[in-house]
């Protein structure tokens, strides 16, 4: 049963390249896992600092945020996403982006570009 579910996910993510189902070491399978990126916000200091990160079209991105005060992360996808985080450690999820391109992930207070997602 598990295998069937995994297979379906691979099929959905790799259309229209319909490859044979059943290969357990297909590289496509990794792309269905969420991308996890650590983000640290301390006053004016934000890490990462505008770094480019490649993600697949349709791939979920989880940001593990550690912050000194609560705030909001803006994802300039279409439509835009506003992700609130708490003080301390929390995880926020960027919904999968369906259009290839570069998407800025930023803070407005302080005004910083945290990441540029290269969706391809
Ligand atoms: Cu913004």
Describe it for me?
- This protein has 120 residues and is mainly beta.
- The protein contains 2 helices and 9 strands, in the order ααβββββββββ.
- The strands form 2 sheets. The chain has a 5-stranded mixed sheet, with no helix packed on it. It has a 4-stranded mixed sheet with strand order 2-1-4-7, with no helix packed on it.
- The chain starts with a helix and ends with a strand.
- The model is unreliable at 3-19 and 21-26 (pLDDT under 50).
- The site of copper (II) ion has 4 residues, from β8.
Ions and ligands? copper (II) ion
End-to-end gap: 30 Å
The secondary structure category is mainly beta
- Global shape: globular
Low-confidence stretches: 3-19, 21-26
Strand content is over 45%
Helix content: 10-25%
Secondary-structure topology with pairs:
Layout: H1 2-13, H2 28-31, E1 35-42, E2 45-47, E3 51-55, E4 61-67, E5 71-75, E6 81-85, E7 88-94, E8 101-108, E9 111-119
Parallel strand pairs: 1-4, 3-9
Antiparallel strand pairs: 1-2, 4-7, 5-6, 5-8, 8-9
This protein binds copper (II) ion.
The site of copper (II) ion (CU) has 4 residues, from β8.
Short description:
By secondary structure, this protein is mainly β.
Key attributes of the depicted protein:
mainly beta; globular; disordered N terminus; 2 helices; 4-stranded mixed sheet; 120 residues; binds copper (II) ion; 9 strands
